[in-house]
Structures are given as structure tokens and as C-alpha cells.
Amino acid sequence: MSVFVVVEQSNSGVHRMSWEALAGGQALGRDLSLPVSVVLMGENVSALAESFQSKDVKEILKVETPLLSNYSADGFSSALAQVIETESPKYVIMGHTYMVRDFLPRVSAKLGLPFLADNIAYGVEDGSLVLSKQLFSGKLVADVSPNGDGPCIISFQSAAFQEEDVTDGSGASVRDISISLDENTIRSRPEEPFQEAAGAVDLSSAEVIVSVGRGIGKEENLPMVKDLVQAMGAELASSRPVVDAGWLESYHQVGSSGQTVAPKLYFALGISGAIQHVVGMKGSKNIIAINKDPEAPLFELADYGVVGDLLEIVPKLTETLQG
Ligand SMILES: Cc1cc2nc3c(=O)[nH]c(=O)nc-3n(C[C@H](O)[C@H](O)[C@H](O)COP(=O)(O)OP(=O)(O)OC[C@H]3O[C@@H](n4cnc5c(N)ncnc54)[C@H](O)[C@@H]3O)c2cc1C
Fold it and tell me: Alpha helix locations (H) across the chain?
């Protein structure tokens, strides 16, 4: 019985949310006294395996075949299903990414195993696992427990755990797992990895975000925010009304119908703090809000709040930062 953390690869190596999932898996392993192993699937994952050898994991399980060189839901679901069947882990954990939404339900259906998706936390009650999951755009949190003793597949929302909490160990062993994969069962042919429109940013991996809301007033005021973004070396994000007005592209939008972010600093300018926005940024480590309304709900979440007019404050702040 063990905890498996399945790693997703990104252009730069390991996907940020896989590190977060590992932090969660390690915590779960400690709480339930279960060993933790990492599963790597791909064509050549030896270099990736080295990234995990210094971590506090028992084993690194490699599943290597050219048929997994590119992501396909058929290939990855078949490979992971075989790993689960042969190794019988207690829990299989991943970050709740787009790829996971695509292929983990298939693993669940193939094996008839529970898939408890998009959790924000876990607890242990009387030795049993209880997962917490948001409902209705974060208005409610439901506690869910898996049925049965068999393997259970779990995904965690971005920022449910912190990458920094991954603990180090020494000398995790590496083991190859062989699977049988027939190329005829892979029904899709990969194209170039999905890219957002030119100039789009991956806000989910940004460390500093300046986010602008309807309080900016009009499109003509946006350049002052962009100057601040530049002065802070930040990425630009927004609430939905700014996108709906056509002032910024949709890939800037944070929230339930936009991106989920977890930067070290989220600087919110003229954003009220509606639940649909908050659900996408509440995992930020530090939140600063400027709003002229002292009752703005975002102040309840913010670490620092400035009650004032952003049109006055932002240019002065930029000027100060530019020295
Ligand atoms: C199904 C659904 C999905 C949604 N998805 C999203 C989503 O993904 N992301 C999202 O953001 N929203 C989403 N929304 C919309 C959400 O409900 C809110 O309407 C939205 O987040 C409000 O954006 P805002 O805070 O910028 O605007 P407002 O709520 O209008 O707030 C503007 C704030 O700016 C302040 N302000 C005004 N002028 C100034 C000034 N000069 N200086 C300082 N402060 C000032 C005001 O006091 C106010 O607090 C969704 C809604 C629905 C129904």
C-alpha cells in the first residue's frame, strides 16, 4: 500500500502543479504512514527521474515507451491503468490540470475506481481520508470520502499545497515498469502543443501578478497599470469585466471562468472580490488590494489593503519603483 504521485511534464520539465501534488502526497503519506512513490510516464524520463532522487520518496517508477513521447488520452490512460493494476497503490494523486481532466476520468472508468477530483485539502478522520472540494464556485465546501479499500484516484486544485513544502530525502530508487501499449489503440495524433494566442502568458506559473478590475474605469487608463506591471517585473491579469469590455484578451482573466493562479504576490487594483474572481486567486501567498471602497470584500482576504483611488496611487507607485 502506498501513495503514488503521477508527474506531468511541462516545457520546462516538471509541471508546477506536480510539485504541489508531491507536497500533498508526502503530507498524506506521513499522516497515514504510507510510503510515497513518483510515477513518470514518457519516452525518455531518466533526466526527469533525477529531479526526484533527492526528494523524500521511496521509489521513482518509470514507464518509458516511444508511444508516450507525446501526450494522448488513450496512451496515458492505458499506461497509468496498467501501472495501477500491477502495483495496487492506495492513492494515486495528480494536480488538477487540463491534461488530468482529460485522461484521469478514463483511468477511473477503465478500472472502475473512484476519481475524487479538484480537491482543495484533505483531512484524516479516524484513520480515514476525507477530501474537501468546492461546490458552486466556492460558495460551499463538501467533505468527500472514498468508498472501499481499493486504489482511489485524487486530483488537487492549484495551490492546494505549496511547492516549497516538498521534503528532501536521500537516494530514492528508480524502477522501470513495463507495460504493453499497442499503437492502434492510440486514436489521436498529436499536433504542436497547445499555445495561447501570441503574447499570452501562463499566469498559473507567474510569481508576481498585477491584476486590474472594473475600478480602472476606462480602457485609456490601462497603460498606467501596464507601466506598473513593467516596473514590478510582473504579469498582467484582470477580472472578467475588463475582458468582457474588450480591454484585455481573455487569457488575462483570473477566476472561475478564467485561470487559477498562485503567485507569491497578487496585487489587485480596483477589484471588488466577487466569489468568481476570488476562487481563481485565493491561493496567492500575499495579496495586496487597492480599492476606494473600504467595504470591498477583497479586503477580507488581502494581507495588505489600501483604501484609495488607484488612478492616483498607481502612477506614484510606478514612479517610486522606477527610482
Ligand atoms: C458564471 C460566472 C462566471 C464568472 N467568472 C468570473 C471570472 O472568471 N473572473 C472574474 O473576475 N469574474 C467572474 N465573474 C464575474 C463576477 O461575478 C464579478 O462580476 C466580477 O469579478 C467583478 O469584477 P470587478 O471586481 O473588476 O468589478 P466590480 O465588482 O464592479 O468592482 C470594481 C471595484 O473597483 C472599485 N473602484 C472603482 N473605482 C476605483 C478607483 N478609482 N480606485 C480604486 N478602486 C476603485 C470599486 O469600489 C469596486 O470594488 C463571473 C460571473 C458569473 C456569473
Answer: 16-32, 46-53, 73-87, 98-111, 222-232, 240-244, 275-281, 298-301, 310-322
